[in-house]
Specification:
Number of strands: 4
Distance between the termini: 66 Å
Order of helices and strands: HHHEEHHHHHHEHEHH
Bound molecules: heme C
Shape: globular
Number of helices: 12
Structural class: mainly alpha
Strand content: under 5%
Strand order of the largest sheet: 1-2
């Protein structure tokens, strides 16, 4: 490979320049790039968004927060094939991780929300998820003096609006990136950051064609592709993918390619949650997307590589939410459905 020759020449030159005592590391040129830590432009807004992310008072029942389905202790996912929503309803589709979601070209499996801010309004008012309304959520927050003061500090205005709520949630989510995966260290030139087996798995991942769809900083998230490219995907699930947004027949069964960052943590896999293990997911991808049946050894190597993609998980002090006031409506989770 031409590229590699050029890199090794550079590496040799760098070592010569640096002298014998230091070994200079050279960044590798690969179809996958390392994640950089988030740059926080507005820390006060991020803190507010963090509180809202954990606040169950945005839901009808008073029991469901964003973190309920995108648990930051478990890779930003709920590890369920279908999420549990308001009144124990079964979610319509596997919940994707919020980690590194800021890198997605659009949000949701079918990309129907253009960005994190637009997305964040959805679950609050979705009858199968948090089942509140924007009006109810905002008027609840408005009765909580701690929030009124904090919105004022962040937005310079007393009025809480759904627009400000979703802006703060998005600002928090933008910080949920996971740098420093062992694979990133290897990309940056640390030869010992991944084992020989993991490296073998990566070469296979790259050279067999997985990188056609899983590439870039997020190793996915940047395109819509057909699930079942070479062989149809068999599922009882009714999701049709991107066609629901574009209404174009060629977009049937096109889904946003999921990020493979932290994929070890975000089982089960696929939009229907049908693959419970990474080995299963890799086997299905090989057969359906590449027309290739991996041997057990090859599958194990790729899985080993995928596990090097786990980065630094969000880590912060538990947010302390401002208490309700006497005026805050008390939730009635078990109220009869109207
Ligand atoms: C009841 C479970 C549940 C709750 C609560 C929930 N979500 Fe989700 N979330 C999902 C599911 C399921 C999807 C995928 C829906 C789809 O693609 O059609 C999703 C998708 C997303 C995505 C898009 C990720 C991607 O890769 O496309 C983001 C971001 C997100 N949710 C953030 C939030 C925020 C912020 C909140 C709180 C305001 C929240 N979610 C509350 C289940 C939930
Ligand atoms: C033609 C594009 C394409 C190729 C090539 C491809 N994938 Fe995928 N991959 C996708 C899409 C689209 C999905 C989501 C499918 C769904 O859920 O319906 C996906 C999902 C996955 C998932 C599950 C992620 C999750 O969070 O649910 C894994 C793991 C995965 N791919 C690994 C691989 C591996 C390993 C290869 C190579 C053997 C590969 N992919 C090749 C497009 C592709």
């Amino acid at each position: 490979m031409r590229k590699q020759t050029r890199i090794s020449v550079l590496a040799v030159a760098a070592v010569l320049i640096a002298g014998c005592a230091t070994v200079a590391s050279t960044a590798r040129q690969e179809p996958i790039q390392p994640i950089e830590p988030a740059k926080v432009a507005n820390p006060a807004m991020v803190e507010l968004g963090k509180k809202l992310f954990f606040d169950t008072r945005l839901s009808r029942s008073g029991g469901i927060s964003c973190n309920f389905c995108h648990n930051l202790s478990t890779g930003g996912s709920d590890n369920l094939a279908a999420s549990i929503g308001d009144r124990w309803q079964k979610g319509g589709i596997n919940s994707p991780t919020v980690l590194n979601a800021t890198l997605n070209i659009a949000q949701f499996w079918d990309g129907r929300a253009k960005d994190l801010k637009e997305q964040a309004g959805g679950p609050i008012a979705n009858p199968a998820e948090m089942a509140s309304t924007h009006v109810a959520a905002v008027s609840t927050l408005q009765t909580i003096p701690g929030y009124v003061a904090e919105f004022k500090q962040v937005f310079g205005a007393e009025q809480i609006t759904i627009d400000r709520v979703t802006q703060a949630l998005a600002a928090f989510e933008e910080t949920l990136v996971t740098p420093n995966a062992r694979f990133d260290k290897w990309l940056k030139g640390d030869d010992n950051a991944i084992t020989e087996q993991e490296q073998r798995g990566y070469i296979l991942f790259r050279d067999s064609g997985c990188v056609a769809c899983h590439n870039g900083v997020a190793i996915g998230g940047n395109s819509f592709q057909k699930m079942g490219l070479l062989q149809p995907y068999k599922t009882a699930h009714t999701a049709q993918g991107r066609i629901d947004v574009t209404k174009k027949d060629q977009d049937r069964f096109m889904f946003k390619v999921p990020t493979l960052r932290n994929v070890e943590l975000t089982y089960p896999y696929f939009h229907d949650g049908a693959a419970s293990t990474l080995a299963q997911a890799v086997d299905t991808m090989g057969k359906l997307q590449l027309g290739r049946t991996f041997t057990t050894q090859e599958n194990t190597d790729i899985v080993a590589f995928l596990k090097t993609l786990t980065g630094d998980q969000p880590s912060f002090a538990l947010p302390h939410l401002p208490p309700s006031s006497d005026k805050t409506p008390r939730p009635d989770p078990f109220a009869k459905r109207k």
